[in-house]
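Worked problem 6 (solution included).
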Amino acid sequence: MVPMLCAEFGMPGSPLRPIVTCEHKYWSRLEQRKAIDEVPAFALVDLDTATGPPEGLRYPLWLKPIKGFSSELAFQVNDDDEFAEALTELRAGVDRVDEPFRYVLDQLDLPPEIAEIGPHTCLAEEAIHGNQVATEGYVYRGQVHVHGVLDSVDYPDSSAFCATRPRPSAAASTTWSIRA
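Solution. The predicted structure is:
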């Protein structure tokens, strides 16, 4: 909503389309795949008809709404039983997130592969492996300003990020750094 409000009131801000492209999990994966080779396999899941994972995807994988926040309704699934449980929970809760996002999507001229996605559709993607890092910063008047690069460190045997530096172990060593 921020880009819409900025545009309406003449405030500086990013246009709606690039923000939505990043926020729409399937659309952003399509764009990522154009830029790099390391994007995990992913596919759409129709919640009205799905009974199992899309063909070609392997466990462990993630099942999540097209638009998500704070890991709401995002499920790591390791087998068919967990996939079925995740489908049940997604079917019960996805409209709460999806309906407002549909309103925002309706404000844009979407590419055909995005426009044809139905309202009860989620993303399935294989789990990511390796070091996870993110850049922090902002863009102001077309100029990129980077604060630093952050390591995203998981708790051992978990997909949850550590809030504090974990104690080193023989199984994993972690280097925390912020680089400007």
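Discussion: Residues 170-180 have pLDDT under 50 and may be disordered.
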